[in-house]
């Protein structure tokens, strides 16, 4: 097992798999960062072999960054946070992988994000980026809300904001909704004047394509555009409700994570903002922390 | 050119391409059905070669049904209604096809459906099945509304109703909406008690999968289920508005087509129902009629 040369204690690697990136960080037993690596997407729901490939690649980059040999992966204790592993079938696929580590502990990306945000303590998180969801872990009790994916749920997320605004502009072009500053911004974004020009660019596209429209909606909402305000307020109201549901199990700490966490803040409930604390560490830290916990239980 | 043995006039074939089926009917110059054929999907937006294959296959079946030889396709005057041919690129791809007909005239599936519904006369149609859209043609002026596709638009369609009810049930499972008869029906349809069970069956699925939920929503709305009623009324209100927009260009006749046309009727505006007339002929008739019009202009 890889050990810190000074302390003689084992090294841990925390890996955060995501829809666009996989981040790996090697920590010493004293939480010092020894090396980091970033590779491509690692979401088991969208491909198992790509997930394994990205975990392997980010690990190798982190080892190299730490000045270690690739073979040293066999001595690391790994913690991995992945989407979808609450589905038993996927969980089994992952833990049966012939992984390159000494030990591997797998949990949901929500769990590792939450552990990271509160540096190991109990708490709740809301993640609002391309998608949205809520998670709390208090005295071993887990609560997982939303996150049903585009276009089924994920209210208040970037993709949801984008879908709402695209719908509104298409309704306007058909004469069902009025023109606002938002309309003009969206038409100029798509460089078109008609519905077909928008549909051609959005039909069949992934949530990421829709999420790119979120910035326009938020800017227009700040400029008091009526339609944009309506959309942003509806999304923020859902996120506030999500937070209040999480508060019901009395998490000692609450953080928000993701690209939309800050932009949405002005429209969140005052009771929600009052409980908001900064995230203390990244999800990779949470993953390594989880691995250490599980490893010490052995 | 194939001619009616009695009258010596040319034969026309009308072809209606769709997302699931391609229907072809050979008509005499006196509108008598000479032969029919049905093949697989023919939507150029979802594949050009499959579209050509289905047009060819349905034509061959219609020829066989008419007791004609396959080679006789080279003597037919064809009219084809297809989705997406209002996109110039797709229109060019279609008309440049080395088709098996004497002449081929292509227009949108909305146009041929409208000609069919009014047996050649001016008028308006609303199509509500898996998707929804409106179309009117009056004195050569065309109006085309909605039909932006799932999940971007198509309000009041089967897929839209299905998406709304899935969202509502997922919100209920997270504690954001109350339980109604609809909830129970949907959970039993998916044979699950939790959100993950629904998400697994719907994530990434096509509009057709969502449209299968429409029947449940409509039945629950009839039984006065509050949530189902809210969804159905919102969808029907949009369809009514769609009709009123079409009425603005004063179509002499108005029909509704598609699997949801009749089920939605109880919730449509009285002004809309008052103007509703039955469809007089199928889209294939419209396609053949269009071909004859264009052919006689030559």
From TrEMBL, chains A, B:
What species is given as this protein's source? Shewanella canadensis
Where does the ATPase BadF/BadG/BcrA/BcrD type domain start and stop, copy by copy?
A: 13-263
One protein family per Pfam:
BcrAD_BadFG
Task: Please give the superkingdom of this protein's source.
Answer: Bacteria
What InterPro entries does the annotation carry? ATPase_BadF, ATPase_NBD, Euk-type_GlcNAc_Kinase
Q: Under which name does UniProt file this protein?
A: ATPase
């Amino acid at each position: 097992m890889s050990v810190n040369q000074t302390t003689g204690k084992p090294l841990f690697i925390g890996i955060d798999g995501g829809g666009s990136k996989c981040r790996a960080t090697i920590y010493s037993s004293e939480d010092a960062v020894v090396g980091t690596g970033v590779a491509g997407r690692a979401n088991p729901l969208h491909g198992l072999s790509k997930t394994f490939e990205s975990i392997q690649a980010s690990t190798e980059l982190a080892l190299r960054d730490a000045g270690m040999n690739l073979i040293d992966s066999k001595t690391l204790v790994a913690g991995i946070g992945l989407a979808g592993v609450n589905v038993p079938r996927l969980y089994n696929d992952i833990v049966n992988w012939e992984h390159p580590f000494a030990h591997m502990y797998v949990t949901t990306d929500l769990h590792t994000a939450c552990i990271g945000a509160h540096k190991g303590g109990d708490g709740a998180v809301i993640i609002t980026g391309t998608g949205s969801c809520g998670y709390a872990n208090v005295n071993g009790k887990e609560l997982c809300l939303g996150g049903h994916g585009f276009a089924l749920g994920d209210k208040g997320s970037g993709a949801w904001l984008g879908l709402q605004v695209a719908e509104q502009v298409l309704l306007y072009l058909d004469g069902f909704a009025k023109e606002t500053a938002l309309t003009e911004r969206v038409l100029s974004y798509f460089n078109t004047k008609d519905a077909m020009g928008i549909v051609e660019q959005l039909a069949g596209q992934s949530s990421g394509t829709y999420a790119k429209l979120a910035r326009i909606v938020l800017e227009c909402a700040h400029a008091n555009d009526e339609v944009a305000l309506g959309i942003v307020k509806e999304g923020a109201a859902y996120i506030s409700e999500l937070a209040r549901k999480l508060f019901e199990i009395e998490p000692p700490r609450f953080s928000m994570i993701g690209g939309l966490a800050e932009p949405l803040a002005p429209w969140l409930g005052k009771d929600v903002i009052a409980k908001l604390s900064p995230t203390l560490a990244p999800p990779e830290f949470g993953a390594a922390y989880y691995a250490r916990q599980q490893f010490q239980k052995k």
